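Amino acids appear as letters; backbone shape is given numerically. Here is one record.
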Amino acid sequence: MGYINNKGHGGYQRNGNPARDVDDKIATAPYNFVSLPYEGDDPKTYKTLSTKAVSDEGKDLYSGTITCTLKALTPIMVAGPSDRNEKNGVRKFLEVDNKKIIQGSSIKGMFRSYIEAFSCSVMHPVIDSYIYWRNVTGKGAGVYKDSFEEEPTGGFLKKAGARYKFYKAKEITRLPEYDKDAYRTGRIAKKNQGYYFGEPSGEGEFLDDEIVNRFLNEVNSNTSQKDIWRKEKEKLDRNEFARVFCIYYKDEERKGQVKELGVARYLRIPYPQTPAQMAGEFNSDDFCAQLFGYVDGKNKNQKAKKGKLSFSECRLNNAKELGTKSLILGGPHPTCVQHYVDQWVDEGDVPSRYKKKNDADQLEAYQKGNALRGRKFYWHRKTQLQNTNTENKDVVTNFIPVDKGAEGTFRITLNSVNEFELGAILELLNLPENSACKIGMAKPYGYGSVKITVQKYDLQKDSSRYNSISQRLSNTDNSISEKDRDNLIDNFEKYVCDSIYPGEGYSYEEIQSIVDLREMMLIQDGSCNRLENPDWAQRTAYMASPTDKNAQPSYRHKKILPYPDHVKEYK
């Protein structure tokens, strides 16, 4: 096989290209990404199964039920709905009649995430808000600092009817933080200076609503910034002048106009695009949207469609509680561009060098011309303990999982799914013996690995389902045969290949996103049992916090995450 122009992996699909020994130059994480089938860098070329695949016209339709067994291969935790928002409480399984219950909605969510990847459907939903950053230290801070005027700039934000005006401050000087007139910009070690804003000048300028809304959304969603700006917000709510820093457009026709607002001198600035803009446009004709249903848009423009599948709850037997566990479940999120945005330099190169020099400013970011790494999944790995000694107890999650070996049954009800949709479902239900799924919380720490097996199929074509009532009432197995199920899987795989890479002659297992997904689902890789192997646990562990300057490896070193099929090969 040659190369497919699949930007999900640096512009090319690799085949048999071994990873090199790069010592400690790569990142480790309990998660990785299933690549997206881009052509080039433009998300508009993100290929998905859509209209033709989901149309039921001219296709066989199937209805019925599939009864499945779910078995925990590691401890699992699926919180009951009443416990999800309980602050500092202990999360527990939902119980009915003394049985631990996994809700049907949780099982449905698990199925959707995997079938979305198996079918190369559009990635949805994706964060549709801007990702902010700043880099004020190091040799490569120029790209960031070039966004600012030579001196700190700022002024006042004030309501003007339904809009906002910005007034420049006559002067901005330093002032001891303990002074009652000081504007404090956050706690930093050995920092004891705040800012003094002079009087507002001029009549002010109206700001674009987008600039103000972006600032208000950011400051209200970020705990530290919200705390810094609390008093200023009170002033704004009273229609008074609220102090704020800013940067201006520095060139072209908008030079001198306010570009961004922030709460600090060196404020965080947004990347040019949101992750959603880079992920491709959601289409209601998307394969997974038609199968599982969707809600798109807001208020009166909102569109919705009911899915074709429903899932019963799973009542667990042999559900032995393990006692209260405590973990800090927060981890890197899309601000970690070295993981979430494709960083490869050249085809076949190791992901340890940037295009120019080893500096944060050389990282590819959320902007046109770059590609997302793909869908985030978690590795199967041994359960891991964590040091939760912290003053901020709000970040610690306490929960009571059940031990591995817990087992139960659930039922999938299908309502007139077409042959390709049924093939996708069967693809997931007929995994190789060495593969499994993940469900529930604490997945980064080894929880949630489950094996799904089919107990019984009761499926028929809609056209023949009620041909003979007497036959239906008998004990005869009227379901589709094993041969028919295999053909449905083969036809689904062929349709994916023909839709994503028409005329190329590639097999389903050669598509890079499928290679990635298969790797992420492995529990047994040759002689390595990933649920027990300490070396594998080390290769897929979280790195140290960026604040730990002595740790190796650490997120502060901006190390790049290797692709799924290379993790096991790096040393």
